[in-house]
Amino acid sequence: MGSSTLAGHGAEAPVRRQSSNPALTLSRVALAAVAVFFLLLGGLGVRLSLSTQAWIYLFGMVALNLPHGGYEHFSNLRRRDLDFRWRYLALYVGMVAAFVGLFFLAPVAGLALAISVAVAKGGLGGVSVLDATTGTDHLRTRPQRLLAAAVRGGAVMAVPIFAWPGVFQTFSHYMVGIFEEGALMAVAPYFDVTRWLIGGAWALAAVVHVGLGYVRGGGRGWLFDAGETALLGAYFYLVPVVVAVGLYFPLWYSTRQVGRSMAIDAERGTGGPDLLDFDRPEHVTLAAGGLLLAGAILTFLIAGVLFRVAPHPLGGAPTVIGAVAFWSVFVSIIALPHVVVGSLFDRDQGIWFVP
After folding, report:
1. What is the mean pLDDT of residues 335-346?
2. Closest to 24 (Cα-Cα) out of 105, 134, 110
3. Whole-angstrom Cα distance, residue 335 to residue 350?
């Protein structure tokens, strides 16, 4: 095993300086544009209905973002030994089954883990992008890198919990209601208190993260990091949570992972057998298409089985809103092994690999 996502970089890591990265620029412009759009809508007194927000979420998470998740695994595994691929797949499926079991046995705990998964994915993946592009010379220690990941990923959940408590609580009820109706009622009275605690903790962590980065180096990498931290906070504060989460992953997370890949393509080794090692280019195209199709079929097969076995697959909500609740649960179930198996287990060359 090599170094982990957080442990393998820091002050001693190679710092890359890029004059431009189109994917990163696109992510910043896209998120800022959405935030400004909803700021203007709010100023005009316009509010999108919950069903309209749900359709935007489904478009962003299913149509735009799901293919990228499959591509991350495909890109990672195409040049790995066959034994590794089978272990990878077995661990992935096993973790999916375990997470489904947790939702059935303790749906509130499952919801807490689902929130944690979103934070980890946004945070750990986000730090890897900084490593590969603008640099992380201002992140000097492992705890500081963990703090950076917590702040970047925490914006995805902590800020909406504070800014949009009613909608967040409503969808939390629907999500746990898929497995046990009313299961969240026992903790619902504490939402008003936890909202302020979580929001305040994120704000304090963000200030410490930005301030400590300045003290320990500042520079160009810190400037980008600080600006993007502020952008993430503003985005999740201004944009309704259903829309914000639905567009964050395709417009920010996936787009920036493309930018990371662009930055490291020239440095990454190609060792190991290639799944696409064919003599004729058309065979490469057919093989790549077939593998991605197989991944899509497996993904929707898992979704179909979950929908079938869940006691209340829509959580008691109207159809399109219930679809958001169901997809949020499902995508968190497949995202847990995405983070754990795709990165923490695969420390040599995982989905967020940076040489």
Report:
1. 88
2. 134
3. 14
